[in-house]
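Structure in, sequence out. Go:
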């Protein structure tokens, strides 16, 4: 996979790795957290999973009932929410760190720009010297 595509996929999905919740007080259940962006979160995790990276973190997230519901709104107990929050936070940090590293590795290119890499000038001088010696030997 090309690094630019990898970087683009991460940049598109990192903002979606957020738990948007409402804190509710349910009678008989106590405080629960209503996840209201599960579809976006599932989509982002699936796209990142397709990259073949962060398997351990993604597998940890998949342990939570995020993938067993078809609704966009899911209720979590306090313990479930805290665990899921930590796992999503870890995944988001890993993705952000890789994205930042790729940003530094990949030079920004302007449209209609042609890049030309020049050879090492020491090597050119060495070749020139050898060529000159060969020419003087011929004469």
């Amino acid at each position: 996979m090309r690094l630019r595509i990898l970087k683009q996929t991460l940049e598109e999905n990192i903002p979606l790795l957020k738990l948007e919740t409402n804190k509710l007080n349910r009678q008989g259940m106590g405080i629960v957290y209503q996840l209201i962006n599960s579809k976006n979160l599932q989509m982002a995790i699936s796209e990142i999973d397709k990259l073949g990276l962060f398997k351990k973190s993604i597998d940890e997230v998949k342990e939570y009932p995020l993938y067993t519901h078809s609704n966009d709104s899911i209720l979590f107990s306090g313990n479930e929410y805290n665990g899921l929050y930590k796992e999503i936070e870890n995944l988001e940090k890993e993705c952000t760190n890789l994205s930042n590293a790729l940003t530094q590795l990949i030079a920004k290119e302007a449209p209609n720009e042609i890049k030309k890499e020049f050879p090492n000038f020491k090597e050119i001088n060495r070749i020139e010297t050898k060529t000159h010696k060969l020419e003087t030997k011929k004469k």
